[in-house]
């Protein structure tokens, strides 16, 4: 096995989380728009990719989704647009916080490895999170799945990150919380996969990661060594 010299990270729910959940923001958006709730936040999250063709900007995607949800509920699409605008006004992309141990992990690994981010999400949104966390200087490249390349688990975004870092799959690991996109994607691209589930009690997945960690602090021990 080649010596590991490169570490790639997922962003959302791996390095950071929103201070307020989608459900919290959606409840405020309905109230501000003066509209009775007609869908749940879980539906928005689960069906988000259905509307990705609406544009590169998450605000356009959200607007298309909420309009559709309104029509499906027998409401005027204008209700959906009003809620989407209120949601956008409340969803401050800078209001994120580190997942426990993430800041220490990035700081420690940056001393010995080349670091990059492979995230699904538009650059306008993800760049604000990275800036708010104050870790932009730690990463030599950020690849946005769905914009620079197909979304994970397609291997292309991982390949673009490795190319930017002059690294090979055998010398790189990818750390992420999602089995479907991060573990499967890293495996597809030939990287060593490190699974960091949000719930440490979550049972082992059907897609096997190379390593499982219960906390981002476990990265300080460099489990792949």
TrEMBL record:
InterPro entries: HAD-like_hydrolase, HAD-like_sf, HAD-SF_hydro_IA, HAD_sf. One of its GO terms (biological process) is small molecule metabolic process. Residues 199-211 have a biased composition (Basic and acidic residues). Coiled coil: none annotated. Residues 191-211 are annotated as: Disordered. Keywords: Hydrolase, Magnesium, Metal-binding. GO terms for molecular function: metal ion binding; phosphatase activity. Pfam families: Hydrolase. Signal peptide: none annotated. Its cofactor is Mg(2+). It comes from the Archaea. PANTHER family: GLYCERALDEHYDE 3-PHOSPHATE PHOSPHATASE, N-ACYLNEURAMINATE-9-PHOSPHATASE. Belongs to the HAD-like hydrolase superfamily. This is HAD family hydrolase. It comes from Halapricum hydrolyticum.
